[in-house]
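Now for one record:
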Amino acid sequence: NLKWSTGHLINDQPTLYSTGQPISNWDRKYHGMLTIRNALNHSYNIPALLTLRAVGMEKAKNFAQQLGITFKDNQVYESYAIGSNSVSPVDMAGAYS
């Protein structure tokens, strides 16, 4: 959507969900400016959330729906950026294929 390459830089920094709840990476550290490629490689949560915000919730939802992913109550939450959704493994595999 944004035409970002995996070399695009994003700032892995202290971040809050829109609810005010903090989000952290699995290692409880911040890594500053890093590429999307490195963020994906290390499964960092903060860059995933920041990317979702940059794309926009509605655009991300529409894209996922075009891949065959459905959402309970047709609602999307920021935490879905890090996999907290209820998408079945079969549906996710179908989306990847």
